[in-house]
Structure prediction request, 283 residues.
Amino acid sequence: NTCSIREKAEEKLFHQLGRWKKLKTTKPKWNPDKMGRVLIWGEQGIGDVLLFCTLIPDFITKVNKFIFKIDKRLIPLLERSFNEEIELIPNTTFINENEYDFQLPIGSLPKYFRNSLSAFKNSKVLELTVNQERSNYFRDKLNNYQNKKIVGIAWKSNSKVNNKYPFSLESFLTAIYSPKITFVCIQYGEVQEEIDNLQKKCGIKVVKLNEVDLYNNFDDLAALMKACDEIVSIDTSLIYLAGLLAIKSYVLTSKNCYWCNGVDNEQSYWFQSITLFRQSISG
Prediction:
């Protein structure tokens, strides 16, 4: 019970900090000349960790053992996708230095594996495996609306970095509305009032499956997204998850977009399934 109380207190503190804490360790940083047991840890938010997960297939062949310290919300999804190839531990859990030989923050992996455009083109592709039973269940529920195409939508971000989008749900959805599409909410947060107001004002229905915790249960979120034919979203961490699931996605980027979206490319360097639509003028 004492351990449980301490773990809950540590987890609460971790979420209050809101960012990854630097790993305190005396072990040296890994580089491709070193094999051994390697601990990879995240120093950023869940979106960046998802982005850098694309490098795992290239990295995993360079080590004897891969230990991944990661947000616990991602563990079920990654466990299914990698079986026993990776040892996954929650980022709130202490790991003894005796258990690894080298360490590296995950954001440093591109230095070794994505240092040119050709590296993106020649890299191994990672596609995560969803809970197919859950995905089929969600698909069956969404097919009850008897429309031809199922499109997941996300239209706002709570991130200070990505808080550049002037969209309300109404302005976002009326621009792409078609009666032949079932629109599905994959936007986390308090959005039910917006959804209700849109239906009252415009007669446009957005399906929100309240049984899916879109913030805490990434395994169900991934299954729901995989049940969709396409995703339309602003640039949020959801897009990196969509890319790792190889879902055809359309992403609206701001003029001053996040660095990983490049400058003028229409196709994402990181994910072949993602097409970028760029804002030409700020505002």
